[in-house]
Amino acid sequence: MSEFGLINKFTAVAGKREVLAEYFIDAASTMKELNECILYEVGLSEENTEDIYVYEVWINNKAHRTSLSMGATQKLIQNAKPYIHEIERITTFKPVGGKGI
What's the CA gap between 67 and 45, in Å, rounded? Predict the structure, then answer.
């Protein structure tokens, strides 16, 4: 099996980016407990004041899909929904190396 990576862009409801970002930072804490999650980074766009990027690397695509059905993940999604204006999957990719992976 090969590693699976993805980058998603979340556009927050106007003025709520920091609130939404906290939900993803909380998710990152949960991901620390999952060996299947290799990397989970949250970043704020410097170009758009409402955009948040989440960069993830998993041991495989199945592990990522499984994480979405976890109770903690489902709760986070439900709590964050009111602050999400738009979600865009930027890309998926196959990690091949680099620092931090």
Answer: 25
Nearest Cα neighbor of 90 from 48, 56, 46, 47 is 56
Helices H, strands E: what count in the chain?
3, 4
Which residues, at least 6 apart from 13, have a Cβ–Cβ distance to it below 8 Å?
Answer: 20, 50, 82, 83, 84, 85
The pLDDT tens digits of the residues spanning 27-86 come to: 988 888 899 999 999 999 999 999 999 999 999 999 999 999 988 889 989 999 999 999
**pTM of the predicted model as reported, rounded to 2 decimal places:** 0.91
CA distances 41 to 3, 14, 38, Å, are 16, 22, 10
> DSSP strand E in 4-62: where?
4-12, 37-44, 51-58
Q: Assign 92 to helix, strand or coil.
A: strand
Residue partners of 100: CB distance under 8 A and separation at least 6: 39
Tokens 């004041």 label which residue? 49
